[in-house]
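hey so i finally got around to running both of the ones u sent me last week. sorry it took forever, my laptop kept dying halfway thru and i had to restart like 3 times lol. anyway pasting them below in the order u listed, first the sequence line then the structure token line for each. didnt double check formatting much so if smth looks off just lmk and ill redo it

first one:
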Amino acid sequence: MRRMNDDIRLGVLVPIGKAQWGAGTDPRELVDFAVRAENLGYDSLWVNDSLLGPRIEALTMLAAMAPVTDHVALGTATLLPVLRRPVQAAQTLASLDLLSGGRLTVAVGAAFPGRFGRPLHDLSEVAWADRFTRLDETVALWRHLWTDDGPTSFHGDLLHFDEIPPATAPSRAGGPPIWLGGAAPAALTRTGRRYDGWLPYPPDPADYRSGLAQVRQAAADAGRVPDTITPALFVSVLIADTVESGRRALEDYSRANYGLALRDLEAIQAVITGPSAQVAAHLARYVAAGARHLVCRIGTVDLRSARNQLEQLAEILPFIRHARPAAPSGSRSG
């Protein structure tokens, strides 16, 4: 398994939700947004996932981006696997990995309580109480299908399949890397034991540092090499002339996309705004805490503003990439 190095990568979410397009926008322009991000030097392009609300479906968007991009990584931040048929999802993800030439990363998560959680399970007719077990078993099934020539079978506590025909093999042996979102104690342990990367969004870099230490300890306890797990960060970002003007803009973004006041969103999720130097310095605090792959969601409510932010954020790429990462606790230094 490949070890992590100290390269810092910066990715951006493509604004696939209509709340971020703005009125009168042709959603096909999202493909141009992706191409422009690659040309500006971003390392990765991401899509978030939901079954509710007007939006482009996440895996459909990735399929549209794969043939028009060349080297940029493509990922989900995060995918809700338990709301999909698990065998069919394995086939779709393997196909995306093939069509992108092995550039896919699949970050997954279990939905949270509230309007982003239980209603989705009700619509998908999937039990809410078993979502964490179902998530881990779905990922285990995918990996099994991606490595077994078939026909094969799979039996977990919840998922049971016999005589599964041979599945599509991904571009990479073993399939694309699978990261886990979430920072609850159980999620940290599960990440260390089972997953290839960690994608949380803690508001405080100190919590990122302590969480990463727990992930690495869980990996070591499971007999894994801790620094093979990619430490990533999901963060909402808006570059503005002042912190005050940025917060006013983020208030609209937070209410449009999450139905939350900004103060409620930033209590649970990393949110950064202000002049570019201040944004870069704040991101560098997460780098110092151990983050290596920064996944930025641009906090705008129209595509024109998102394009402008894309250009501005690209200007701080060199600063971010030269930020000095902290040496992982209990593993080799870089």
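and the second one:
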Amino acid sequence: MNSDFYKNYYDEYSRLIYSDALDETFDDFKKLAESVKSNKHKLIFAGNGASASISAHAAVDFTKQAQVKSITFNEANIITCFSNDYGYDKWIATALDFYANDGDVLVLISVSGESPSVIEAAKRAKEIGLKVVTFSGRSPNNSLKALGDVNFWVDSNAYNIVECIHMMWITTVIDSVIGKSEYEV
């Protein structure tokens, strides 16, 4: 590898990570998180693969750092049980039927914005009256983004870059709820 690869790689991050147009999206998610916190509801995070890992990290940090109660459905037993009994495409939607309450907010993460289990979860959330926050990439007209109330979208087809930016944007909202980026944990 030569240094051109690294420079181009990080130039892509610089191009994608922030624009003034994101301020309103950050503020909208922050307001939802603060409403969840003040009304003693919860954020529910879900995704597949690396997006499931991002979901788990986000749920812990929202809960511990920002004091916003948050959960994720990353337990192998719930995934395999609900997938087996209700179908893989419906497992997250079914988990919502068991765990979601009025006033909760669903946060869905999918690089493609086309993951069937995530799309079905967004549809179910809308049916039961939950607000939906989405994190996606690739096509600006992806199915997940079309179902969201607050949408974060990365204009890239590079999975690792999209996933890292999703994590950075989520932690930006956590820190905005806290009101600072440096604090003891």
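quick thing i noticed on the 2nd:
The two ends are 38 Å apart (CA to CA).
anyway thats it, ttyl
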